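User: Please predict the structure of the protein below. I'd like the answer in structure-token form so I can feed it into my own downstream comparison script.

Assistant: Understood. Taking the following sequence of 127 residues as input:
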Amino acid sequence: MAVQESYEEKITNALRESAHGRFDWGGSGAVLELYESAGGEERDELIRAIGRIIEEDEDPSVVAQLIHIASSLDIAQVEPNVEHLKEKHPEEDDIVGKAVSNFLALRRFRAHGRAAASEHLEMLAEE
């Protein structure tokens, strides 16, 4: 009997298959398919896996892609994982830092409207 591949393995394998460092998001289709096909507890586990990968994976292109996917799907559950990366990637001059800034600005916008997102972006510009 074959061991079922974990969500972490499925996600990272799909994202690593796309050309390293390219931003055509070649692996996002596979991740979106996993997300759309999962429901209930399965989707909860998938979201937890996304959060773990965001926080623990060492490949910046994988992490940035997942943050952008989570942002597009408005997956609020991974916000603590993304917040954790803010300390590790404070500069917006790397791909993960840009993805973190974008995710947090969009979360604030969705939660508090345009004024809060603008304040967040102004604060980042001052830092």
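That's the full token string. The CA atoms of residues 17 and 125 lie 34 Å apart.
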